[in-house]
Please model this.
Amino acid sequence: MNGGKVMITSKTKKIGILGWPLGHSLSPLMHNAAFTALDLDYVYVPLPVQPENLAQAVAGLKAMEFTGVNVTIPHKVAIMSYLDEIDPSAQFVGAVNTILIKEGKCIGYNTDAQGFIQSLTRRNVTIRGKKAVVMGAGGAARAVASGLIQNGIQQITIGTRNSLKAQGFTGFFPNFKNLLGCNWRDSTFTSQVKECDILINSTPIGMSANEKEELPILWENVNKDATICDLIYNPPMTAFLNSAQIRGYRIINGAGMLVEQGALAFELWTDKQAPRTIMSNIVSKYM
Model:
C-alpha cells in the first residue's frame, strides 16, 4: 500500500476472516484502513466458509501462505481441532478468534477477552471486586467471563433460557468458585440483577433491527448504578441498550470490543502498534 492507494501484488501479506455468514462484518473495512494508515503491504479479505469445509479452509490458509485470520461465528470452538498450537489466551477461554500463521504453523489466540476488558476500562468501568451478570452461555460469554475473572471480578452470574447450559457453563472455569448459572426467568436471576454492577448481553438477540424477540429484563429489578453492555455493534443501539438508556443507565455497545480485539489481532500479525483511533473512526462511520 503506497500513498493510501491499494496495490495488491504477489508480495502483499494476506489476512482474512473466517465465518459463516459474513455479511455483517466490519472487520475488512477496519483492518484495511489500519493497513493503509501505516503504509503496510497487507490486505484483509472476507472468507465465508461453511462449517463442513472448515478443515479444508485451514489447510488452504497454509497453502496460500496467509499471514493470519480472524475467526468468527460459528467456527471459534470447532477450529481449535485443526490448529497446530493453542496460545494460553485461547486455552483459558476455550475458543479462538485470531490465528497467526508462522513458519507453516497455525497458532490460535483469543483477543476477545482482553478486547472486552479494554472496552470497559477505556470507559472507566471498575471490574475488580464487582459483580457481573452475563446473558448467554456461548463462546462470547466464555470470552467475557474469562476476561472478567482475570481482572478480579468478585462474582459472575450466567443467565440463559436453557438452565442446563447455564449450569454447565461453570465447568469451563473450575477454579473460579463464584460463578453461578441459572435460567434468566428464575427468581435467582432476578435477585442477581438487583445486585450486579455490570449487566452484559452476549447473545445475538437484538442483532436484527426487525427482531421481535427481546431479552427478558425487568428494568425495575436492575441495580440503578449498573453499567449495561451489549456485545452487538450492528445496530449500534439495540432494543436492550435503548431500554437502558431511556432509564438513565450508562450503556456500552460492542463497537469498543470490536476495535480493541481487532487492534490486538493487528499487533499479533504485524508487530506494529495498531492505529486504534483510525480503526474506531471507521467502525463509527459504517455503523
Summary: The CA atoms of residues 60 and 69 lie 12 Å apart. The chain has a mean pLDDT of 94.
